[in-house]
Amino acid sequence: MNRRIFVLALALTPWMRTARADAMHDAMSAVLKGATPREGRVKIDLPPLVENGNTVPFSVSVESPMTERDHVRSIHVFNEKNPQPNIGDFFLGPRAGRAAVSTRIRLADTQTVVALAQMSDGSWWSGSANVVVTIAACTETV
Q1: What CA–CA distances, in Å, run from 123 to 36, 70, 72?
Q2: Spatial CB neighbours of 72, under 8 Å, sequence gap ≥ 6
Q3: Which residue from 1, 7, 48, 114 lies 20 to 30 Å from 125 (Cα-Cα)?
């Protein structure tokens, strides 16, 4: 890496962090459509420290009896620093039995992951988790 590219990277880093955080906020706003989520009921299970961001075990669960009258309609997961802010959207119903999903995700850097859950009564709940990534995924090589 030559000196100009290094200096340019240093100058753009704070702007890129802000732009990615704004992208996550915009993606969450598009899902919420003006609603304000309350904290709680949503639990993210994510290792606090991962060596390699290419395949990170991830699960999210929501406290709900999952009955016809009271169940989780959807779970939406967002990240702060990946190129795409939306990790995934999961749609559930009372027949799901449990309001929980598990998968593996890629994480570009140390960041916060946020999950939003919409309940059958229209309310929104949120939870978040921080993760430190030592070897980043989702990076572009020059």
Answers
A1: 8, 11, 10
A2: 62, 64, 66, 92, 96, 99, 117, 118, 119, 120
A3: 48
For residue 56, count other CB atoms closer than 10 A to its CB.
19
Q: Measured between alpha carbons, how far is 95 from 71 in angstroms, rounded to an integer?
A: 9
Q: Where are the domains of the chain?
A: 3-135
Q: Kindly report, residue by residue over 70-106, the tens digit of the pLDDT.
A: 999 999 999 999 989 999 999 999 999 999 999 999 9
Closest CA to 131 of 58, 30, 25, 37: 58
| CATH architecture of the domain with range 3-135 | Sandwich (2.60)
The model's pTM:
0.81
